[in-house]
Each structure stands twice: as C-alpha cells, then as structure tokens.
C-alpha cells in the first residue's frame, strides 16, 4: 500500500509528538503544493515562456531567472496563508517576510532557496528547492531567525529531474518521496536513507582550482590516486542528492570570487547538513561543523564540504 508524504508526517508526529495538533503537516502540505506548482511550470518551461532571465538582479547580485521568480512567488503564496508561519526567509528576498500571528499560533519560521541551480534551468538540467524549518521562540520574531543549524526542526529539498523527488528529515531519519503524476502525490520511495560511509566520487568545480587554498587540490590529487571519479552538475541539490545516495564528497571551497564560500548558510548548507548528518554523513565549513555555525546574516555564505563520514573526516585544511 502506498504511503504519501502527508501520511508519513502524520505517522511520525503521532509516534514522536502525540500532543501535536497536525499544524506541522498542514505546513508541509503548503510546501508540497508549491513544489507541484513549480514542477508543473518546469515540466513545460520551453513552451510556456518560463525560460530565461526575468531581467532583475536579486540581493545576491545575480540575474534572476523567470523560474526563480515564479518558484519564489509560489512558495510565498502557499506558505504565507498558513497561520502557523511567523516568518518566511527567501534567497530571493532581501528582508524576511514577517507575519505577525500571535506567538502561540505563529510557531514556525521557514527559510528557503526557491530554485537552486538556476544556471541549469535553460539547458534542462536538474534544479531544486531547498527548505529549512525553525521553531519561533518567544519574543520578536525578527530576532529569532538567526538560529544555528542544529536548532532546525525539519529540513528538506525537492529535486526536479527525470522524476521529482522530495527528501526530508524531522530529526529521526531521512526519507524520500517520488511524485506520482498519476495521483498528484509524493509517495514514499526511499525509506530511511543512509549516506554510505565512504564513496568513490568527488564533486567540485575544478575550474576555480587555482584560487582554492592549496590543500584542496592536493587532496583532489590524492583522491584521484585512490581511483575516485569526478561528477559536477552545478546544481547543489542534484550534486548533494547523488552524494546522499551513492556516497562521496562535495566541495564548494573558498575562491577569489567568494573568499567566504559561495553557498548560503541558512538555506543551502544548513538544511543539507541536517539531512547529511541524519543519514550518517557529515558537513563542515573546512574546520567546523556546519550546524554549529552561529549565523550573523540571513544571506551569509560559507564554504561547504559535505558527504560520507569517512571522506569528509579524511579532509582537513
Ligand atoms: P542558486 O541557483 O540558488 O543561486 O544556487 C547555485 C549554486 C548551487 O546550486 C551550485 O552548487 C553552485 O551555485 C554552482 O556554482 P558554480 O557555478 O560557481 O560552480
Ligand atoms: Mn542555491
Ligand atoms: Mn536559488
């Protein structure tokens, strides 16, 4: 019998939080609705004028793609109408969107990258959506957004590819669901995902290797001498999903262009680090655990090394 993501969340909540009132699953249904809207748009992007640039530059200084804008609007709409949401933080919005529900109702903050891998949209390569869910502590919500990653109550991503897969954790294992277009539901397809202890793939954009700290290229040479192969898709969600299932290690090191790393802590590194650790893997910024980094800005960037426990532990810089 199939298990949908909604049923799975309800089972999990009943098992671990009998007192829960189903508000988290209501929140998750906002995410899955937005995901289906984005998937439908991507599926027909070449014929519905959804490709190409939107002509604007976002807070990251990057040219927004039309699908970046659409995905962001879909998520803001589907989540903004949930009364359990105290604030939404998006890669595409300079400031958080604060809803001012009473503290006893507005209990969640959702942080997301609405469309990850934007440079791949026009060439029909996998892109994704990444989300992280934080609890809203008492007091003004704007002070509550900059929480370290170990305080996440849930995290996940949707990977839009040959099939559309949603992967999430609420802190008790990692589960994958495949969208069944015939019934419009995400159906459990990957139960209790375990990140292999060691892999044989490394993933990095070696075009920037001359600007990485030297230890990185030295390590890549060591991995090649051990027979590792290389894969780099350029969409973090796709590179991570492969690493989660097959093992290995992904690097986005410091570069001249991004001395503090390119990837964003709150809505790229933290959610994927939570998933990696829940699946038995590891994620660092070179010398400290990603989930322990105290955020100072909602769009701050970080170097990211993530993947198999043995592979990440073997690298030091
Ligand atoms: P986004 O599309 O949300 O801006 O993220 C793009 C990121 C990430 O998906 C990927 O790992 C990285 O950019 C690729 O960067 P390079 O093109 O510099 O390799
Ligand atoms: Mn991204
Ligand atoms: Mn993005």
Can I get a quick summary?
The protein is an alpha+beta fold. It is 28% helix and 26% strand.
Structure description:
With 317 residues, the chain is of the alpha+beta class. The protein folds into 2 domains: 186 residues, Fructose-1,6-Bisphosphatase, Chain A, domain 1; 114 residues, 3-Layer(aba) Sandwich (D-Maltodextrin-Binding Protein, domain 2). Helix content is 28%, strand content 26%. The strands form 4 sheets. It has an 8-stranded mixed beta sheet with strand order 4-3-5-6-7-8-9-10, sandwiched between helices. Strands 12-11-13-17-15 form a 5-stranded mixed beta sheet, sandwiched between helices. It has a two-stranded antiparallel ribbon with strand order 1-2. It is globular, with a radius of gyration of 19 Å. The chain binds 2,5-anhydro-1,6-di-O-phosphono-D-glucitol (AHG) and manganese (II) ion (2 copies). The site of 2,5-anhydro-1,6-di-O-phosphono-D-glucitol has 12 residues, from strand 5.
């Amino acid at each position: 019998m199939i298990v949908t993501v909604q049923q799975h969340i309800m089972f999990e909540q009943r098992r671990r939080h009998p007192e829960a009132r189903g508000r988290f699953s209501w929140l998750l249904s906002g995410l899955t609705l937005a995901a289906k809207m984005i998937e439908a748009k991507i599926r027909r992007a070449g014929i519905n004028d959804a490709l190409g640039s939107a002509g604007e530059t976002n807070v990251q200084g990057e040219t927004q793609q039309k699908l970046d804008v659409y995905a962001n609007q879909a998520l803001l709409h589907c989540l903004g109408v949930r009364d359990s949401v105290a604030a939404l933080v998006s890669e595409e919005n300079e400031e958080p969107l604060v809803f001012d529900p009473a503290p006893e109702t507005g209990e969640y903050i959702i942080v997301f990258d609405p469309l990850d891998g934007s440079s791949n949209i026009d060439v029909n390569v996998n892109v994704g959506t990444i989300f992280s869910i934080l609890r809203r502590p008492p007091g003004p919500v704007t002070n509550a957004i900059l929480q370290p990653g170990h305080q996440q109550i849930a995290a996940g991503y949707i990977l839009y590819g040959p099939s559309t897969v949603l992967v999430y954790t609420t802190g008790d294992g990692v589960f994958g669901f495949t969208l069944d277009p015939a019934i419009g539901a995400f159906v459990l397809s990957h139960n209790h995902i375990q990140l292999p202890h060691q892999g044989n793939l490394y993933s990095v954009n070696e075009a920037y290797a001359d600007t990485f700290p030297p230890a990185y290229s030295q390590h890549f040479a060591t991995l090649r001498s051990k027979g590792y192969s290389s894969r780099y898709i350029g969409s973090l969600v796709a590179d991570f999903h492969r690493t989660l299932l097959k093992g290995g290690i992904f690097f986005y090191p410091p570069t001249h262009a991004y001395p503090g790393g390119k990837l964003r802590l709150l809505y790229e590194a933290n959610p994927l680090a939570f998933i990696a650790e829940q699946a038995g893997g590891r994620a660092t910024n070179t010398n400290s655990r990603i989930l322990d980094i105290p955020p100072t800005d909602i769009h701050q960037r970080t170097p990211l090394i993530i993947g198999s426990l043995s592979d990440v532990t073997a690298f030091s810089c």
